[in-house]
Structure formats: C-alpha cells, structure tokens
Amino acid sequence: MYNVLIVDDEQIILQGLNFLIDWEEHGLEIAGQAAIGLDALELIKNQTFHILITDIKMPKMNGIELLEEVKRLGKNIKTIVLSGYDDFQYVKSAMKLGIEDYLLKPVNEEELSSTLQRTVDKIEIELSTKM
Fold first, then answer.
1. DSSP assignments along 65-102, one per residue
2. Fewest Cβ atoms closer than 10 Å to its Cβ: which of 13, 21, 27, 66?
C-alpha cells in the first residue's frame, strides 16, 4: 500500500475524497489529512507519503508554497493538485514543481481515479528501477 496525504481547507473535500475513490483498488491508503499547508508540512516531515493531493488556495501556506517546501526537503512525493481555480499562472507554477496533474473542482471521479492509477504506475516503475 502507498500512503496518500490529502490537504484542503474545505472539510467537504477532505471528507468527500474518502468516499469518492476506492483507494484500496489502487493500492492506496489515506494516511493523513490536513486543512492547511503548514500542518501538512509537519506531517510530511514526520511520516512517509507517496502521493500528495493538495489544494492551491489555502490560508497561511498555499499549495505552491507547500510543494516548494516538499522539494526543498528532498522528499520524493508524487503530487496531484485539486483546485477551484482555472488560472494559468497556478497551473504553470505547479507544473514547474513537477506535479502529476492539475484537476479542477468539483473533482471528476473517473479523472481522479485514472490520475491516481497513472501515479501509482510511475511509483512502481521508479521503485523497480532502483532495485
């Protein structure tokens, strides 16, 4: 099982993602949740996560700042951005930080599911080439 961290300041998203996707089917487990980027960063420092699903617009530390800190820490976490903002600057900034995908809210179950599967496939390929 690969660990997933979900970060979003909207409780409905945090709760809804638990039930939207069959996480086990993808070999995933929601191992952490946070409502703000600062809390997520503390979790990332102290636990192992393989996939980060984050919002962009959050108080105190936005998603882009969180991604920059994750990179600075040298953590190899695949990232999927969920955002209510269809803003090219956000997309461009997130892409420069190496995200897997930028999905718009409301989240489409099939789109998120296929993105998760592609991400898991990438993780498995990377792990197999390291052996």
1. HHHHHHHHTT---EEEEEES---HHHHHHHHHTT-SEE
2. 27
